[in-house]
Amino acid sequence: MAMSPLLPLHLLLIPLLSSLPTCPSSSPHHHHHHIVTTLPGYDAAGDHPNPIPFRLETGYVTVDDNHNSELFYYFFESENDPTRDPILLWLTGGYRCSVLSAVFFEVGPVRLALHPYRPYDLAAGDLPRLKYHPYGWTKAASVLFVDSPVGAGFSFSGDPDGYLVGDVSASLQLKRFLSKWISDHPDYLSNPFYIGGDSYAGKIVPFLVHKISEDIDAGVWPIVNLKGYLVGNPGTGESIDLDSRVPYAHGAGIISDQLYETIMEHCGGEDYYSNPKNAICEQAMKRFNELLNEGSSGNILKNYCIYDSDIHHGTIPPFPPRECIEQTYGNYLIYFWANNNITREALGIKKGSVGEWLRCHNGDLPYSMDIKSNIKYHRSVTTKGYRALVYSGDHDALVPFLGTQTWVRSLNFSIVDDWRAWHVDGQSAGFTITYMNNMTFATVKGGGHTAPEFEPEKCLAMFQRWISNEPL
């Protein structure tokens, strides 16, 4: 588990602890938070660290007393009117990826500046630079980013068994998190409350909303003022998420008519993507994946690049090749930012709680995908009157909009506002359709697997309108 002993000595600034943390020395409080006044690397003037132009609180909430499991959060107050603006609880995808990805690459008010950075110049206390992000969703809401499940980002357990979680148990821990967090922040009890997430988190969000709505129905206190939820390029657990890659790739000119016809003829039915039924289908799917991987499946307009989340712990991420700088340099920088002791001090990370920070723990911690399909939860909470926005970056081949559009239609809600363009600055920003039960589906033109990463301006406009109850 520990990092390679072959590291140069000057990299010892990065804590060389195993990635499975031990119980930190401080006594476990139910809730422990602090206000971050300066973010390491954030430098508005260019010569010395400035106070950050938004209010940021970080902290921990204990969600499993038996195992001393604590979830870490970043709470960015709205830059508009925090007393009245909605609160958005935001989860990130990849079932064990750090929510710091969402802060820096998606909807947070700060981004990594893609300046040249030499990780070996540690004597200067050199850190990757951060810059203000003008299209952060904190323009319209306060955003509570949570590292979930336990083992993602800076969330940890004092006992190895605390890491044995899955979709259902992690959702119930989030519900506990929320109830404790809101009790600790009673000023926010009346603010409209929304839950959002993309990719794999899109599978968790409707279930979590469903569980909270049950508490609300039962009158369990403290209750957030839950209004609805939003999910981007969301997984459902259904085979349609993956099966739709084939018609999508065909429509986008990635595979030939012939290959498409072979797959349709020999693969047939459901779940052929991950479970080819016969040798011809298996051969065709192998060819399909080779062709899809000629580019980036998260955004078919981009280059094929290896992301740091594909690299296992114990290895410093390699510097990205020139043709991948624009896409993956941020993923390279975030590793050095999060593993620096100056950063951890500033964020209030408990000493000894997490060794090497990884953007994603791919498969090195157990996780059970025990929600097989979340479509019934989408149906149940929207039928109860909670608002829903389902949006898809239209250049995503990982969870293509075709699959998402298919299951949204399968709910059989009648159409209130038929398919039309929505606009930013007078130009189409994508297309949208609104159904009964306050359910809106929208595509984001040019967006990839995490739409706000590629089209931040369009996504902020979409979010602002939706959260203000305006048509897109």
Question: How would you portray this structure in words?
Answer:
- Belongs to the peptidase S10 family.
- Keywords: Signal.
- GO terms for molecular function: acyltransferase activity, transferring groups other than amino-acyl groups; serine-type carboxypeptidase activity.
- One of its GO terms (biological process) is proteolysis.
- This protein has 472 residues and is of the alpha/beta class.
- The protein folds into two domains: 9-237 and 301-467, Alpha/Beta hydrolase fold, catalytic domain (Rossmann fold, 3-Layer(aba) Sandwich); 241-292, no CATH class.
- The chain contains 13 helices and 16 strands.
- The chain has helices at 100-106, 167-184, 201-218, 240-243, 245-251, 257-266, 279-292, 325-338, 341-347, 375-383, 401-410, 451-454, 456-467; strands at 31-36, 56-64, 69-76, 87-91, 110-112, 130-132, 142-146, 156-157, 165-166, 192-198, 225-232, 367-368, 387-393, 415-424, 427-435, 439-444.
- Strands 1, 2, 3, 4, 7, 8, 10, 11, 13, 14, 15 and 16 form a twelve-stranded mixed sheet that branches. Strands 5-6 form a two-stranded antiparallel sheet. A two-stranded parallel ribbon has the order 9-12.
- The protein is globular and about 60 Å long.
- Mean pLDDT is 89; it is low at 1-29.
Protein topology:
Blueprint: E1 31-36, E2 56-64, E3 69-76, E4 87-91, H1 100-106, E5 110-112, E6 130-132, E7 142-146, E8 156-157, E9 165-166, H2 167-184, E10 192-198, H3 201-218, E11 225-232, H4 240-243, H5 245-251, H6 257-266, H7 279-292, H8 325-338, H9 341-347, E12 367-368, H10 375-383, E13 387-393, H11 401-410, E14 415-424, E15 427-435, E16 439-444, H12 451-454, H13 456-467
Parallel strand pairs: 4-7, 4-10, 9-12, 10-11, 11-13, 13-16
Antiparallel strand pairs: 1-2, 2-3, 3-7, 3-8, 5-6, 14-15, 15-16
